[in-house]
Design brief:
With about 375 residues, this protein is of the alpha/beta class. It has helices at about 5-10, 40-50, 55-65, 65-70, 85-95, 105-110, 140-155, 165-170, 225-235, 265-275, 300-310, 330-340, 365-375, and strands spanning about 115-120, 155-160, 175-180, 185-190, 200-205, 210-215, 245, 250-255, 280-285, 290-295, 320-325, 345-350, 360. Among the domains are: about 85-185 and about 300-375, Rossmann fold (3-Layer(aba) Sandwich), CATH 3.40.50.1000; about 220-295, Alpha-Beta Plaits. The protein has a nine-stranded mixed sheet, sandwiched between helices. A four-stranded antiparallel sheet has the order 7-8-10-9, covered by helices on one side. The structure holds ligand L263DTV3. It catalyses: alpha,alpha-trehalose 6-phosphate + H2O = alpha,alpha-trehalose + phosphate. Removes the phosphate from trehalose 6-phosphate to produce free trehalose. GO terms for molecular function: trehalose-phosphatase activity.
């Protein structure tokens, strides 16, 4: 199979502009903190300002917009309802721009007429609800059955920031394709005349069932570095109560969901200090998590393109790709679909957010309903 060269040869990205206000090296930049503050996050932020003995780093963080970003980067668990506050009205306006994939189901399936749907699903926050302990992000049996059923009819892949092994442990469905580490670890099919097999980042191997598969790991050279940074981050964050570090094989997650808000600055400072020694690693952010990853030009969007090509599903006239995801790393995939003018991104969110998706679903239970609807529609 022929892949466009830029799909299989991730190049080192251009240096990211230095956050001059913080004097940070170019790799120490997460996504821009363009997050809307809601009433809860504003209140938290104001409380921090009032506190005495606040580390001076907080002021610096505030100036750079980082603190707001850290506080606001995960929507409140409480859904916006008519009674909650006037932002409900703004949410409804947002919903007009990103309508529910459930109420727009007929419109979506009208575009799928005569085509094959290819389904891409994020894991955390999409198939399983966000929980305090990442180890407990278990998907329900009902969700598993829904994914299994949908995969009977449509090629289905899970694309997660977790390590591929970990996400498989959670999902446990052998009929899917899996991309772990934000797409930097893809297990896909072997096909005749497969050019992946000969690519330096690809190897032929067998999966847990003994089936021959193609393993694409464009960041394999970073493994020792990621291991080292993982161990360093564990050591450096050990005194920050509530923080935890997760090894996702080709990237590392530093969680601060359980850290007191007044200590967010410490987490931020610590991660950035460590990364100063690793110019070939960069920082992105997700839901109350910093993601340390290699500076290769590879992300969930590239993984979607790669899988579409590997599965011979890249012809937009025949295939409608649908990507369902909830966090900023999923935006790369939404963007790819939008730019290709092929398929739809569906953002899972119960609060308004800037997104490149076309539709929205409020939470994993709506995702499950959507999957069930697809099966009924077939
Ligand atoms: O791409 P995903 O499958 O969405 O993975 C992204 C990160 O998800 C996990 O963290 C998030 O979910 C946790 C469990 O609900 C939650 O505790 C945490 O605050 C969230 O950020 C996972 O632990 C990370 O490694 C993934 O990168």
């Amino acid at each position: 199979m022929d892949l466009k060269p830029n799909h299989i040869s991730p190049v080192i990205t251009e240096p990211i502009p230095v956050k001059s206000r913080l004097g940070l090296p170019s790799n120490l930049m997460s996504y821009p903190p363009g997050i809307e503050l809601n009433s809860t996050t504003s209140m938290l932020f104001n409380n921090i300002q009032r506190r005495k003995n606040v580390p001076s780093k907080l002021d610096e963080l505030r100036a750079g917009g980082w603190l707001e970003a850290m506080i606001a980067c995960s929507p409140p668990r409480k859904k916006q309802t008519k009674d909650s506050d006037d932002s409900y009205e703004q949410y409804l306006t947002w919903m007009m721009k990103y309508p529910s994939a459930l109420t727009s189901f007929e419109q979506i399936t009208a575009h799928a007429k005569g085509k094959r749907i290819a389904l891409f699903l994020d894991y955390d926050g999409t198939l399983s609800p966000i929980v305090d302990n990442p180890e407990n992000a278990i998907m329900t049996d009902e969700m598993r059955t829904s994914v299994k059923n949908v995969a009977r009819y449509f090629p289905t892949a899970i694309i997660s920031g977790r390590s591929r092994d970990k996400v498989f442990e959670f999902v446990k469905l052998t009929e899917l394709y899996y991309a772990g580490s934000h797409g930097m670890d893809i297990m896909g099919p072997v096909r005749n005349n497969d050019s992946h097999g000969s690519h330096p980042n690809s190897i032929r191997t067998t999966d847990s069932q003994g089936k021959e598969v193609n393993l694409f790991q464009p960041a394999s050279e970073f493994l020792p570095m990621i291991d080292e940074v993982f161990r360093t981050l564990i050591e450096k964050t050990k005194d920050i109560k509530g923080s935890s570090v997760e090894n996702n094989k080709f990237c590392v997650s530093v969680h601060y969901r359980n850290v007191a808000v007044e200590d967010y600055g410490l987490v931020d400072q610590c991660v950035k200090e460590v990364l100063k020694n690793y110019p070939r690693l960069r920082l992105t952010s997700g839901r109350k998590v910093f993601e340390v990853r290699p500076t290769i030009d590879w992300n969930k969007g590239k993984a979607v393109e790669f899988l579409l090509e590997s599965l011979d599903l890249s012809d937009c006239n025949d295939v409608l790709p649908i990507y369902v995801g909830d966090d900023r790393t999923d935006e790369d995939a939404f963007k790819v679909l939008r730019e290709r003018k092929c398929g739809y991104g569906i953002l899972v969110s119960s609060v308004r957010k800037d997104t490149d998706a076309f539709y929205s679903l409020r939470d994993p239970s709506e995702v499950m309903e959507f999957l069930k609807s697809l099966v009924k529609w077939v």
